[in-house]
Write a sequence for this structure.
């Protein structure tokens, strides 16, 4: 078999050469998410997320730390074996020899290095236009056969076309932005921190401040490759350290006014809804030491609703499924979930002011601009019904079209904007008045 000289494969081979040379997790992350890795896209993406957080991908696979069905496990083990073989190739081989060996190891056949590219001509020959391609006949979007997640449905709710690119096509995304790396590193730091301080106490203030500083340093150093420059890395670490100290300020107030104990961190949430599997991870689960109720906590390092009423409105308009899904997943596990909490950790200059929603039987209006409010189980039930409707639709195999959003703000940081010719025009930017 001769492998076609396609650009995507070239990128895969370049990444494999980088992995063979430097052995960094950044190159391994790119390898496992490539279509040539032999690993299903969403499975590869899940391991890539762990890799970006400093977890060893190969060790996690080889020790079977995450459960996977037998066919996926076989794919992962084969990938791990191949990756180790690539890493063990002699460092004296030149790039072309490593590329050929990688193609052999991954069963890609002979790399068509000598073949002319399918389009275009060498520089010294006359330029000839290729014939236009016949459009492919229209066909429905293949049914989604994997698990669902609240974040995939959030993507669909934000822009159906984006869901199509990201999930149905498994199109390759840009490397994670520094904002994404920042968020993941801070999540890891807090996860470690609460492993040591599950029950924050005022008397532990000095120890908590010291430990959280160490956790932030460790987590950001493990994600160092995700930042483009040393300056950006240093600035983001400083920002995270300031935010972490404000977070401890908030913990100390909580320890006095509403003491809690952390029951779990990065808790796997899985739920079957109408026969369809949904999965996710809950940042933190707490038990309120006064009421005994369980609260679901989600850290937010990006844009977040500024008030309880704003977040509830997103749930009512089916634009956010995250906390409703966690609520149902934990309720199915037998927890009495009494609060849903979003903790904003974006702005290092502001006090930490969580959005706290008490779960009540019937939803009603929340006071505008207040951080605390209520959310009704009737609203959570409607959200669950909508999740099932959407998953039915995405798994139906009858969808022919995924509409681009009409809200141009969604396109600002979209990784698929270049490919998306039907995206709405951006609103004119205003730099002053
Ligand atoms: S560019 Fe805009 S319309 Fe296109 S996929 Fe991205 S968010 Fe959707």
């Amino acid at each position: 078999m001769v492998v076609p000289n396609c650009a995507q494969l070239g990128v895969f081979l370049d990444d494999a050469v980088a992995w063979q040379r430097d052995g960094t997790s950044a190159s391994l992350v790119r390898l496992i998410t490539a279509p040539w890795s032999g690993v299903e896209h969403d499975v590869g993406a899940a391991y890539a997320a762990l890799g970006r957080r400093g977890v060893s991908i190969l060790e996690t696979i080889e020790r079977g730390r995450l459960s996977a069905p037998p066919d996926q496990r076989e794919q992962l083990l084969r990938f791990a074996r191949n990756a180790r073989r690539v890493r063990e190739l002699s460092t004296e081989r030149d790039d072309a020899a490593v590329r050929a060996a990688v193609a052999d190891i991954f069963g890609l056949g002979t790399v068509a290095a000598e073949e002319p590219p399918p389009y275009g001509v060498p520089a010294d020959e006359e330029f000839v236009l290729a014939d236009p391609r016949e459009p492919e006949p229209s066909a429905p979007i293949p049914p989604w056969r994997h698990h669902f997640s609240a974040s995939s449905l959030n993507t669909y709710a934000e822009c159906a076309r984006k869901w199509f690119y990201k999930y149905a096509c498994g199109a390759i995304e840009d490397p994670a932005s520094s904002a994404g790396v920042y968020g993941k590193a801070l999540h890891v730091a807090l996860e470690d921190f609460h492993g040591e301080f599950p029950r924050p106490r005022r008397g532990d203030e000095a120890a908590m401040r010291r430990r959280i500083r160490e956790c932030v340093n460790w987590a950001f150093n493990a994600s160092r490759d995700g930042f483009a420059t040393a300056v950006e890395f240093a600035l983001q670490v400083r920002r995270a350290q300031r935010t972490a100290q404000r977070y401890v300020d908030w913990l100390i107030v909580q320890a006095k006014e509403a003491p809690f104990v952390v029951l779990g961190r990065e808790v796997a949430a899985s739920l079957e809804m109408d026969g369809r599997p949904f999965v996710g991870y809950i940042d933190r689960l707490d038990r309120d030491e006064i009421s005994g109720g369980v609260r679901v906590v989600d850290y937010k390092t990006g844009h977040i609703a500024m008030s309880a009423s704003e977040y509830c409105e997103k749930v009512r308009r089916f634009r956010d499924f995250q906390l409703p899904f966690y609520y149902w997943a934990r309720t199915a596990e037998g927890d009495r979930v009494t609060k849903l909490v979003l903790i904003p950790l974006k702005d290092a200059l502001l006090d930490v002011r969580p959005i706290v929603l008490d779960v009540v039987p019937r939803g009603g209006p929340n006071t505008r601009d207040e951080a605390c409010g209520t959310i009704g189980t009737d609203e959570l039930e409607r959200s669950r019904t909508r999740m099932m409707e959407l998953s039915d639709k995405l798994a139906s195999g009858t969808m022919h079209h995924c509409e681009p959003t009409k809200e141009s703000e969604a396109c600002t940081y979209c990784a698929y904007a270049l490919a998306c010719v039907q995206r709405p025009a951006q609103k004119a930017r205003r730099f002053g008045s």
Summary: The radius of gyration is 24 Å. The first helix runs from residue 7 to 22. The longest strand covers residues 260-273. The CA atoms of residues 56 and 289 lie 36 Å apart.
